[in-house]
Amino acid sequence: MFSKALAPEYQGALSALSVNSSLTDVLAAATEQMAAARRAGDAPETARAALALAEAHRRLGHVEAADRAWKEGYRTARSAGDLSAMAWALWSGGTLARQRGALALAFRLLRYAADMGKRGGDIVAHGYSLAGLAETGRIQGDYEAVGALHDELLAEARKRGEARHTVWALEGIAQMHRNSGRYDTAYELFEEAAGIAAGADDRRGHAWALRGLADIVSVRDGDTGRALELLSRAEAGCREMDLSSALAYNHKMRGNVLYRAGRYAEALEMYEQALAEFRAMDEPRGEALSRLGAVKARARLGADPARTAAELDELGGILDRIGLRHARAMVDKAHAELGLPVEESHR
């Protein structure tokens, strides 16, 4: 049995906030609470409010404000000698670094966070930080290194009945299976994640699971209509909670579904919309993936092959610098799919 999904990043006076609270509401509450805690000279409460503020800004795509908030939270927690609050601030900073494509910094901050959580006896901060390390490795494409950690974290989350972390782990493992071509296994895992998220009222996790299901239904079954319906359901949840990043990835996936169906003009429109959304929130991974989709769609619509090849080579270099191995392989596949040579210097 799983309990209702909780949001441990909302702490202290903000602990009444729900995992499904609108991010604009979280932002307002955290800003007010942070000001009150500062006036009272309450360092631990200031650090907790800074954490919620950082996470709201990050998920809304306000990266500079998120960066300032987590750093202020860390400094405040350190001045109070609060190891738990320091761990949570580092977790937030590491998550933001991953979102911005700074994977080496993400690994460093999340390792510090895991260690700080362990030293401070905060098993939830420790677990979230290990999950962050696992997700960073998965996004990088290093499945061998992080597959076992995903499995371990899933087992622990199931044992404790933690719905939100169970859903996260299932979705991560499902994505690795999907990217390895094991579509049936991926579908089963995404389906289980969707069911647990719905039962625990975890709308964020449910939206990501629906996106995963839509991807499988499209690539495995060729069922464009059902895939688009699943994405529409997920989009509704994203809009309810102001989930800017999740919404942009939803639009990028809609582009993928339309592209696979041969609806290239519609796909290009969705890729360009997602690209603008990712650029607005300074999320280079999503930006690169949207650009890749747009380049392929334009090629199908008759773009000059030499220009297409040059754009793909540029994207390959960007993905190499970020360190996204799976996404980098997608660029080489695009060369082959479109009948274009691959530059040896970017392999």
From TrEMBL:
Its main location: cytoplasm. It is found in: Cytoplasm. Gene3D superfamilies: Tetratricopeptide repeat domain. It holds the Pfam family TPR_12. SUPFAM superfamilies: TPR-like. One of its GO terms (cellular component) is cytoplasm. Keywords: Cytoplasm, Repeat, TPR repeat. It comes from the Bacteria. Belongs to the Rap family. This is Tetratricopeptide repeat protein. It comes from Streptomyces ficellus.
